[in-house]
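User: Hi! I'm working on a homework problem where we have to compare a predicted structure to a textbook description. Could you give me the structure for the chain below?
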Amino acid sequence: MADLFRKQAQNYAAARPTYPPELFRYIASKCPSGRLAWDVGTGSGQAAASLATLFDSVVATDASPEQLSYAPAHLLPNVRFVLTPPAIPLADVHRLIASPGAVDLVTVAQALHWFDLPAFYALARAVLRRPGGVLAAWCYLPPVVDGGEVDEIYRRVYESLAPYWAPERKMVEEEYAAVEFPFEAVEAEKGTGPVRGFAAEREMAAGDFLEYVRSGSAYQTARENGVELLRPEVVEELVRAWGMDGKEVQKVRFPISLRIGRVGEDGADHPVF
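Assistant: Happy to help. Predicted structure tokens:
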């Protein structure tokens, strides 16, 4: 997937939705303090930028130099962007990211399904504060535009993407509900999730929405296999349904599914599914 992400880094940074401030306020409210957060798989730094408003320091890591090149590092003085290998030894985590027990929050935005989960969870537990350090991972679901014709056209396009998704994408389709999540509940009555009710939003004209579709890994994979899923007649139909020849600006909503939990006193696993 690294080669694919390199090819689409610019489109990804430009087309993806911005996560809502209330999501980060909710997550931060569960943390033991606001000193240090680690954003893993940060991409172009969307989540890191929001975390920077709530935490004294943020370390944002990614395995793609192309993705990191679009991060606004110069605008975020309390965020340290770090290029890491896809598999990073614990010693390097402590050297490059944080000492044991120093991190209040680990976040993963729209990337957990690409990780080696047992290895990642072990690294997260090694740096999270005990007790109470929080891990929060979320994904966003297919967008909702108008509740009508545009959504129906996109549904057909989305279904046509299915053969080109990587197998890991199934975790997103299941809203991370079936993901092993070996952490304690931050709220005993709710368990560790999924927590729903949050949504990313973005104002888009039809051209912006089409760029969002083109930024997806399945679309890129289809193109690499010589298949164009946004055929001219499909684009024309969507633009016509959008309104004002596609120039009307509509609020596009991306529902979010969040898994959130914390480490206990001993940092041991407490599997919850």
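For your comparison, note the following. The longest strand covers residues 250-262. The chain is about 35% helix and 15% strand. Good luck with the assignment!
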